[in-house]
From TrEMBL:
Function: Produces ATP from ADP in the presence of a proton gradient across the membrane.
Transport among keywords: yes
Protein name: ATP synthase epsilon chain
Organism expressing this protein natively: Candidatus Beckwithbacteria bacterium RIFCSPHIGHO2_12_FULL_47_17
Listed Pfam families: ATP-synt_DE, ATP-synt_DE_N
Protein keywords: ATP synthesis, Cell membrane, CF(1), Hydrogen ion transport, Ion transport, Membrane, Transport
KW Membrane (keyword) present: yes
Protein family membership: Belongs to the ATPase epsilon chain family.
Superkingdom of the source species: Bacteria
ATP synthase epsilon subunit C-terminal domain residues: 86-130
C-alpha cells in the first residue's frame, strides 16, 4: 500500500518526520483527511488535534494552527506550535492552565489578556490531546 511522507515543522523544531497511511488535520473548513493519492492542496490549519495513522499505530499531536501542504504524496505541516501527545507533561500543563485562569481573573491590559487567553487555550488543547492519547492506547491494547 502506498504511504504518505509527513513532516511537521515549527519554527523551533521538526515535530514529526515519517511515512504514514493517513493524516487527519484540523483545517479551517473542518477536519480534513489526507490519504495517498490526495489532490494537491494548500490550506490553513486551526488549533486542534493532528492524527497520524500508520498501520495499527495512532499518534496525536496538538497543533496551534498553521499551514498544511499536500503535493505528490508528501504532506508538510508548518505549525505555529506542535507537541506530540507522548511529550506532554500533564502536571506541567495543568499548572500552566491554572496560572492562565488566575491571570484572566486579574485586571489585565488587552495584550496581557490576549496572551493569557492564548496560554489557556493551548493548555486545554494539550490536556485534551494527552488524555485522548491515553484513551486511544487503552482501546488499541484491548
Amino acid at each position: 500500500m502506498k504511504k504518505l511522507k509527513l513532516e511537521v515543522f515549527t519554527q523551533e523544531t521538526r515535530a514529526y518526520d515519517g511515512e504514514v497511511d493517513i493524516v487527519l488535520a484540523p483545517a479551517a473548513e473542518g477536519q480534513i483527511g489526507i490519504l495517498p493519492g490526495h489532490a494537491s492542496l494548500l490550506t490553513k490549519l486551526t488549533a486542534g488535534e493532528l492524527y497520524i495513522f500508520d498501520g495499527p499505530r495512532v499518534e496525536i499531536l496538538a497543533v496551534g494552527g498553521g499551514l498544511l501542504d499536500v503535493h505528490n504524496n508528501e504532506v508538510s505541516v508548518l505549525a505555529d506550535s506542535a507537541v506530540r501527545a507522548d511529550e506532554i507533561d500533564i502536571y506541567k500543563v495543568e499548572e500552566a492552565k491554572k496560572k492562565a485562569e488566575e491571570a484572566l481573573k486579574q485586571g489585565l491590559s488587552e495584550r496581557e489578556y490576549t496572551l493569557a487567553a492564548a496560554d489557556l487555550s493551548r493548555a486545554v488543547l494539550e490536556l485534551k490531546v494527552a488524555r485522548r492519547r491515553h484513551f486511544t492506547r487503552s482501546v488499541m491494547d484491548e
